[in-house]
Amino acid sequence: MAPGATAGKSSTSMKTNADQTPMMRQYHSIKEEVPDTLLLFRLGDFYELFYDDAVTAARELEITLTARHKEKGASVPMCGVPHHAAEGYISRLLKKGYKVAVCDQTEPPRKGVKLVPRSISRVITPGTITDMNLLAPGQNNYLLGLVEREENLGVAFLDLSTGEFRVSEIGGEDRWERLRLDIDHFSPKEVVFPASAGDALPELEGCVRSPLDDWVFNEDSAMRVLRDQFGTASLDGFGCTDKPLAMGAAGALVYYARKTQRSNLEHITGFRCDQRADYMILDADSIRNLELLVSSGGGGTSETLLGVMDRTATGMGSRLLRNWMIRPSIDRDAILQRQDGIEELVGSQNLLDELMECFDGMADFERLLSKVIVGTANPRELVSLRSAIGRLPGVAAVLARLRATRFADLGDSLDLLDDLTQLLGGAIADEPPLTLADGGVIRDGYNPELDELRRLSRDSKSYLARVETREKEQTGIASLKVRFNRVFGYYIEISKANLHLVPAGYVRKQTLVGAERFITEELKEYEENILTAQERIVAIEKDLFAGVRTAIAAEAVRIRDSATVVAECDVLMGLAVLARKFGYVRPELASDRTLMVRKGRHPVLDALGEQHRVERFVPNDLYMDDERAIHIITGPNMGGKSTFLRQNALIVIMAQMGSFVPARLARVPIVDRVFTRIGASDNLARGRSTFMVEMTEAAIILNSATLESLVILDEIGRGTATFDGLSIAWAVVEHIQSHIRAKTLFATHYHELTELADLLPGVQNFHLTVKENEGRIIFLRQVEEGAADRSYGIEVARLAGMPHSVTARAREILKKHEETEHELSDNLTRARHKKRIVINQLALFSPEEEELGARLRELDVDSIPPIEALRILAELKDRADKA
Fold first, then answer.
1. Is 228 helix (H, G, I), strand (E, B) or coil?
2. What is the pLDDT, as a whole number, of residue 12?
């Protein structure tokens, strides 16, 4: 079976029921419930896999494939993993795209019972993981529900580990492209869709496919499932009842989650109906190009914006920060409230320290809740939950002393969960074992019957001592011993020298070299009582623990609400820590479209420079408004053009997250989208060259950007011939200036583009400065107005270690090209100053040249693009020569 596929039915060496052992008949019966999974079947201390499942697991996990079980002489493939280490193996299978069903023993083995009852306890798929050991703390794990009808898509995203649930409906010819924006944001691990869609569903990279019967997506069926899940008579309050396909996708997800988790999922209490007008849109190219989440240089998360900004203390806060980053707000009031909160914490080190202390080491109780609900939380995880919610009063105390409106609202929304803290504190021991089977999970004093049974068990040593003293006195055997071991139970041991003193009521149990062991009716009865007590202790603790877990699950809504408050407080705290550490300032939200940054810095490079003491970062200014909307930026390679572009895009994103920004002063408008086209890459798997990818990204920008967008373009047109590339770059700028008018930072090595500043209103030239010293260049990385006079590419090649012979030859070639360009420039200048003469040359041509003549008359030679004027002059000269 290939990675990413699901398991099939166990077909290898299948037998009829009559040929199978009772245990294997039980296995096949359970396997029929989950034919598309790898079934982990509990046998003693191991989870075993059989038949095709065993072959697949042995290959993927690189473990030994055996055939210890044989039926009628035929081998049954088999492999196994220790039950205490199963999570690690399950994680590896999930990462390879498999689904795993876990079959556990529902009762402990008993004497005389050959077949232990077993049933499936959980089905784990890549999109339904709830175990925190299998999840990244700062990332959500989404399951995608998808259904299409005509030209509409119903879409739903569910994170089962947190209960976050979002739905939407997308229509129009571009629906799949718009869906990919959501997929870029949420990165779902699994997609649930109608089986009838089959191969018509496009491949979604990184998503395991899980088809369901079509009726599951039916609106009526889905609505019933959702009403039952949320405990409501109607779904009108969620604002999505006019979106039947969205309801179908959402209902299918709940159905699938219930089916796999075998639980009612009390923490899923509603969904959010997403509207695209709620947030700034960042597509996958922008997220990648700006290195928001992943470093293009392979430097890990520390070299990303998220890595620098994430100063949160909890997994809940880290996930929320990530969501704020990939979906920055466009709600002015929400942004201002976040800024007010950060500003207050920045100004009060004491309150900031107190809040940090509240969150330090706090467990991720949002995810712990999901484990409680699906019934997989162990005793120690309930202790972690108790510890986490036990800190809520401290959080509330700090919030009560803060004055910002957002903190007041959060404080009002924070449920202290005192009753749950008391329940967990009274029921669960301070340091319980990992599993219920070990005993000692429930605290003394919580249950009288349990206390009595424990007393009986604990008193066994003193009881044996009393029996031993009494028997010594009655028999006169001073060396008599009363003992216990796990093999023979309770016994009385008497040396052979004293056997003649053994009373008639002693029953021989075992003969040793130098002694005999006996049992009495009293010891036999006591042994039965003790063993029964131990069994009762385990059974009672199991029931009490399940009751506590059920009581916690019943309060899922309250716990989730408090987790939401903690997450936002944690994010605001982390952003305040960030602002204090790096000297960030509060950006002003512009009421117009002015974008102004004074002494702006790249947040990642600025932080890395601070940490590693590398070269000092050079801050730069930016000023853009409707009259200065397009900046053409030239300068040498390594001069800092790309950094300047990225840092301003990141400052805008940070500002709309509500964060302070790395600058001395900033005034930022609300931006609907940030587009970036940076660097060179290809997609050979899809048949796209580097230039094709570049043009595709540019096309998306030109077709989607609006007046409210920020566009970042770096080196458009460099992947083809010079005149082709220059023409495309020129036309792109013209299109943005005339049709979109979005704020645009355009870095280029085409110096010809700088002439656009003289031809088009709203276009300005800027360059990155360098200093020449004895034939060498020093990068000053300062942005100044005006165009660069040269590119210094050969000098950069020298710095990169290019052989001297190559750079020397390059200078010779460059000199010849510069002489030719100078000659062409002189010709162009003469043409511009002698427009009348150029136009009069038309008289040399025959009447069939009237089309060219008309074009020339329409054009203003003084203002047409230089490259176009040169082409026309060349054509004139060629035709004149022929005439």
1. helix
2. 43
